[in-house]
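Review form for a predicted model. The reviewer records the input and the model, then writes brief findings.
Reviewer: anonymous (R2)
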Amino acid sequence: MRSILSLAFAGLFAVFSVSPALAHDFKLGELEIGHPWSRATPGQARTGAGYMTITNTGTAADRLVKAETPVSGMTELHLMEVKDGVMKMREVEGGIAIPAGESVTLAPGGLHVMMMGLKSKLVEGETFPLTLTFEKAGTVTVEIKVEAIGYMGPGAGKGDAHGMGGHTGMAH
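Model under review:
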């Protein structure tokens, strides 16, 4: 009986000790990076995008200045906007500001990490590394989880109501 209880407690300990990893969150100093994700890409798509929420729990602002991944030839920090009914995408000069005590969400239809020249398609269920460089906090490598092609992110249904933020297969 004692060995059965020991095994049960060991099993519970294992479940609770891996739960932070299952949450898919990362931390770098005062910065918390929540659920980094991308969408699966169809066929020969050459571009993809990375999304996440970055929370600055500190008292000083920081800035995401660079992102790199081995799955693409080039990576840039981008903003997608619709002006006068026309979708425009541009690189964010100087990086993405992360104000003190606030969260910045990189999501379809807005700020994102643009991956150009994908070396292979992004497959749902797989992960890949993305190294983020911040002006003050330094560098951290996170794991991007590849979600379904139509996935809209945590809290889906907000923004991107017209599917404008897909980037899947978009030419640049």
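Findings: The longest strand covers residues 72-83.
Further findings: The CA atoms of residues 52 and 135 lie 18 Å apart.
Recommendation: see findings above.
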